[in-house]
Amino acid sequence: MKHVKSSHEVATMVEGGKLLSQILHQLLDAVQPGAIPLEVDKLAKQLIAQVGGSPSFMTVNNYQWATCISVNEGVVHGIPTTTPFQTGDVVGVDVGLLYKGYHTDTSWTIQIKNSKLKIKNNAENFLRTGEQALKKAITKAIAGNRIGHISQAIQETVEGAGYSVVESLAGHGIGTKLHEPPQVPGVLTRPIEKTPLLQAGMTIAIEVIYAAGQPEIMYGNSDGWTLVTKDGSLSGLFEQTVLVTDSAPRIITPF
């Protein structure tokens, strides 16, 4: 299969993924009350340059930022703005690294907290569900399984908790291109046996893209990128780049 990686390619992606994970942690640490999303993106560009890489997302036509930063009802592709974060905001930071010719991609969603201020209507259970869905989905990334096993794990976990998977968006293969086949949906829309077969050496970005309310999305403004939930409910994104193996999957971007 064209998108099965050699041992050398895997080693390169593992190296880049480790660096990207470190960068994501630093970006999430910068997401504080009063911080500016655009400044977080500036930090991302600096950190990526320091490790000798370049921003994956800037390889996408007309996208000028190193990150996508989605706030509250923001789902994906949120262009970093100058609007400060506030305590209680639910913030997803999505970032990709092009390193030695190979992409890795990861995202995590957090709620901004302040130890001096009790947050009402916190999103802890919502965010915990996304983490659990990603964890369960990753366990299915074994040679001989199919993409549908991953989709099913996401769907059952998210919907079992009373939330909705955003059906119109999906994870993807990844390697020399940011987006490669196969697509990795978060819902199972056809029999598992009719979904793509997983082979050892495949690298995929598994994404849990979900909403506290209904799954329909729309553009949140006129920037042509930022997607939000149509009903204004909270959204979350948890993503890791994963290597398919014959036994236990390997997380290339460990959080």
UniProtKB/TrEMBL annotation:
Binding site for a divalent metal cation 1: D94, D105, E239
Note describing how the cofactor binds: Binds 2 divalent metal cations per subunit. Has a high-affinity and a low affinity metal-binding site. The true nature of the physiological cofactor is under debate. The enzyme is active with cobalt, zinc, manganese or divalent iron ions. Most likely, methionine aminopeptidases function as mononuclear Fe(2+)-metalloproteases under physiological conditions, and the catalytically relevant metal-binding site has been assigned to the histidine-containing high-affinity site.
Keyword Electron transport: no
EC nos: 3.4.11.18
Reaction catalyzed: Release of N-terminal amino acids, preferentially methionine, from peptides and arylamides
Alphabetical keyword list: Aminopeptidase, Hydrolase, Metal-binding, Protease
Annotated SUPFAM superfamilies: Creatinase/aminopeptidase
Annotated a divalent metal cation 2 binding sites: D105, H172, E207, E239
Any Pfam family: Peptidase_M24
A GO MF term: initiator methionyl aminopeptidase activity
Segments forming domain Peptidase M24: 13-246
Complex formation: Monomer.
Function: Removes the N-terminal methionine from nascent proteins. The N-terminal methionine is often cleaved when the second residue in the primary sequence is small and uncharged (Met-Ala-, Cys, Gly, Pro, Ser, Thr, or Val). Requires deformylation of the N(alpha)-formylated initiator methionine before it can be hydrolyzed.
Record-given protein name: Methionine aminopeptidase
Organism per entry: Candidatus Gottesmanbacteria bacterium GW2011_GWA1_43_11
Gene assigned in the entry: map
